[in-house]
Amino acid sequence: MNTQIKPTILCLFSGGIDSTGVLHQLITHKKYKDANLIVHHIHIHNRENRAKAEAKAVKSIIECYKKNYDRQFLVTESVFDSRGFSSLRSKRYPYDMDVCAFYAANIAVGRKNIRFVAWGRTKTDVSSGGSFEARMKRMQDVFDSVWLLEKEPIPKFIFPLIKYTKAEIWNSIPPEVQSNVWWCRTPIYQEDKILPCGVCGTCTQTKAFIDG
Fold first, then answer.
1. Rounded (5°) CA angle 160-61-79
2. Containing H/E element for 76?
3. Which of 52, 51, 50, 74 is nearest to 62 (CA)?
4. Count of CB atoms within 10 A of residue 65's CB?
5. pTM of the entire structure?
6. How many whole angstroms separate alpha carbon 7 and alpha carbon 112?
7. Are 181 and 17 in contact (CB under 8 A)?
8. Residue 15 binned pLDDT confidence (cut-offs 50, 70, 90)
9. Secondary element (H or E) of residue 96
10. What digits encode the pLDDT tens for the residues 73-113?
């Protein structure tokens, strides 16, 4: 079969729990086996200083899947840097969701065989209520805006984890992959070690099922 005419799924991958869960589904579930797969990591530089920790996780996880699974996929990357916002005394930097939506849309515009974009939306996210729903809508609006001048159909969003809680997603990830997943928003760098802060929102949220 000519792989160029097969539909392609684009997976934005950060090395975190949700995106690793999505990647695991795309690699192992028979539902996605007939699609080409592109895994894209954005090195997001901002005041949280997560880029180095995430890059290390992404590299290790990708290597693990390439070594232990037969599924073929293309790995690409880009850079987004908002650290200069501090000079403008900006009180906030762009949401990761908005950054990912913008990059995903531009990648898909440039590669028209991408028909689906996979996101790590979870049952836990859905149950969190209105704020997350509003951010999801804005993410979709950002994505759609890039396609305003395009004639081709807009790729569809898919949510492989929508029926699962974060704890269930964590438990679905193989142990050899779990050991490389990163979740902390504000990592601590100590010489050659990268440690989770233990107090940020995601550290608090994940503590119960990761330590349990």
1. 85
2. strand 74-81
3. 74
4. 21
5. 0.92
6. 9
7. yes
8. very high
9. helix 96-110
10. 999 999 999 999 888 888 888 999 999 999 999 999 999 89
Domains parsed from the chain with CATH numbers: 3-211 (3.40.50.620)
Q: Which amino acid is at 80?
A: F
Looking at the DSSP bridge assignments, the partners of residue 78 are: 42
| Tokens matching residue 15 | 């090395």
Burial, 59: exposed, middle or buried (Cβ in 10 Å; 0-12, 13-18, 19+)? Answer: middle
Distance of alpha carbon 52 from the chain centroid: 15
As beta bridge partners, residue 79 has 43
Parallel, antiparallel, or unpaired: how do β-strands 114-118 and 156-158 relate?
Answer: parallel
CA trace torsion 201, 101, 162, 24 (10° rounding): -90
**Among 16, 15, 34, 114, residue whose Cα is nearest residue 72:** 34
